[in-house]
Design goal:
Layout lengths: L2 E7 L4 H14 L4 E7 L12 H18 L5 H8 L9 H13 L4 H13 L8 H10 L3 H8 L3 H21 L6 E6 L2 E6 L7 H10 L1
Parallel strand pairs: 1-2
Antiparallel strand pairs: 1-3, 3-4
Length: about 210
C-alpha cells in the first residue's frame, strides 16, 4: 500500500522551488501517492515589487541555491526582481495549476515545475495570465490555458476549495510556512517541515517511514 502524502506549497515560494528536486523524486516513487495542495500563501494582498523586497528576495534565493543547487539566474534577477512595481501574487499560477488539475491531473506537478523554472531560470513574469497561458500551451496543455484565460465558476470554486483545504491542513498541523508535507497514515497525520526536503532522498524516505 502506498504512503499518502500531501505537499503544501506556493508557486512563488523560492524555498518550494528549492524543494522541487525532492518532490519530483517523491512523485516518481511507486510507494508514494503525492497530492498537491497550493496554500495561497502569496495570493492576493496587493504586494508589489520594490527595491527592498527585491534585495531581500535575491539574498534569500542565494541561500536556497547554495543549499539545494537550484538555479536563480540573472534573467530572473533583472526581469522579475528588477521589475519594480510589478505584482508579487501567486493567484494566476495557482489558478493555472488548478486548471491543469481539472483537465489533465496527472500533469500538475509537471506544470508546477514549468512555472517555477519559467520564473527563476527564464525570468518570466508568472503573475501574468498571458505569460502563464503561453507556457501551458507550449507544454501541450491548451485546455488548461483556455480555462485560465476564460475562468468559469467551476475553476474558481475548485481553486477556492483547494486553497481552503490546504490552509486548513496548515492550521491543523501548525505549519509555520511552506514547503511542508503532511503524511497520512492509519495512525493519523504527521507534518514534515520543509527542512526534510533539503537533505538526502534516503533521509526523506526514512522520515516518511517514521510518520
Amino acid at each position: 500500500m502506498s504512503t499518502q502524502v500531501t505537499y503544501l506549497f506556493d508557486p512563488l515560494c523560492g524555498w518550494c522551488y528549492g524543494a522541487a528536486p525532492a518532490i519530483q523524486q517523491l512523485a516518481q516513487d511507486a510507494s508514494v501517492s503525492l497530492a498537491l495542495a497550493p496554500t495561497g500563501m502569496f495570493s492576493g494582498g496587493g504586494r508589489t515589487m520594490d527595491a527592498a523586497f527585491a534585495d531581500y528576495a535575491w539574498s534569500n534565493d542565494q541561500r536556497i541555491a547554495k543549499l539545494t543547487g537550484q538555479r536563480f539566474t540573472e534573467a530572473y534577477r533583472a526581469n522579475v526582481l528588477g521589475k519594480l512595481g510589478s505584482r508579487f501574487d501567486s493567484t494566476t499560477s495557482t489558478l493555472a495549476l488548478c486548471a491543469v488539475a481539472l483537465t489533465e491531473p496527472a500533469r500538475e506537478l509537471e506544470a508546477l515545475k514549468v512555472l517555477q523554472e519559467a520564473r527563476y531560470v527564464q525570468g518570466l513574469d508568472t503573475a501574468d495570465a498571458e505569460v502563464v497561458a503561453q507556457l501551458l500551451r507550449t507544454q501541450g496543455l491548451a485546455a488548461a490555458a483556455e480555462r485560465l484565460l476564460n475562468p468559469d465558476a467551476d475553476l474558481h470554486e475548485a481553486h477556492a476549495a483547494r486553497v481552503s483545504a490546504a490552509q486548513r491542513l496548515m492550521r491543523q498541523h501548525r505549519a509555520q510556512g511552506v514547503p511542508a508535507l503532511v503524511v497520512h497514515s492509519a495512525a493519523g497525520d504527521r507534518l514534515l517541515q520543509g527542512n526534510a526536503l533539503y537533505g538526502s532522498v534516503e533521509n526523506l524516505r526514512a522520515a516518511l517511514a517514521q510518520a
